[in-house]
Amino acid sequence: MFLFNILVCTLCFTANVNAPQPDLSKKQSDPKYKMVWSDEFDYTGLPDAKRWSFDVDGNASGWGNNEAQYYTKDRIENAEVKDGNLTITAIKEDFQGKKYTSARLRTATKGDWLYGRMEIRAKLPDGRGMWPAIWMLPTDWKYGGWPASGEIDIMENVGYDPFVIVASAHTRSYNHVQGTQKNNKLNIADCYTNYHVYTLEWNASEYRVFVDDKLYFTFKNEGTGFKEWPFDQRFHLILNLAVGGNWGGKNGVDESIFPRAMVVDYVRVYQKE
């Protein structure tokens, strides 16, 4: 999601699954894992400032993907907690020189982890031009700027390629700019109408990405250094809904679909004891 568009690999699996709530009590009683951070969105108003910060604008500050939206801050029209959910909404409106508004939330300095299990239960927006993402960036940029310090994409979807969920890894050695990208995709036929649990399990030897506990992408530590494995530093979570951009806007934006929203039921982070 960061800076450049992602080229999707040709491997594909198909899943037609329901997304029942995980058994939280089982996870908490599992001796391997302990919950260390969560947001159940059991309040009303703006996202909890003790857990989330806003990234503002985008291209003007240098890290955009030529996206068409303006990312706003503390604007309930774009990021609202209500009825047990966080709703990130993209709106067609003129704002600060852009044609659309949306929100990008991050946990940096409020939730930063080295290894663990991250679970995000969400329902995605459909429509050409939509580009929702659940992903992670390094908090300290230990090995330098992107892609050297790494990026973990847990879930991305672009509306012109409906129902296709993509997971990716970005490192200095493995990135699409060099044609060496590492990623995979999974078809989820009801990702726009039902909630699904998007999960990352990350340890010192590899990380694995799941949808509803179905494994579909594994990225391994080759033991050859940070150029291949920068994932030995703390990362934070990002939730955002982009409009257009290098990848999401490849086939244009359908202006008739707005507003559109990504709805998040919960975010839960576990680490091993």
Search tags:
eight-stranded mixed sheet, mainly beta, 273 residues, 2 helices, Jelly Rolls
Task: List the total number of helices.
Answer: 2
- Globally, the shape reads globular
**What is the strand tally?**
18
Strand content bin: 35-45%
* Structural domain tally: 1
Radius of gyration, taken over Cα atoms and rounded to an integer in Å: 17 Å
Order of helices and strands: EHEEEEEEEEEEEEEEEEHE
Question: What's the CATH architecture?
Answer: Sandwich
Mean pLDDT: 90
Low-confidence stretches: 2-29
Kindly identify the CATH topology.
Jelly Rolls
CATH class: Mainly Beta
Helix content: under 10%
Main sheet summary: 10 strands, mixed
3D structure, described in words:
By secondary structure, the protein is mainly β. It is built from two helices and 18 strands. The two termini are 31 Å apart. The N terminus is likely disordered.
Question: How would you concisely characterize the structure shown here?
Answer:
By secondary structure, the chain is mainly β. It has helices at residues 24-29, 245-248; strands at residues 12-15, 33-39, 53-55, 69-71, 79-82, 85-95, 98-102, 104-106, 116-123, 130-138, 151-156, 164-170, 182-188, 196-202, 206-211, 214-220, 235-243, 260-272. The chain starts with 11 loop residues before the first strand and ends with a strand.
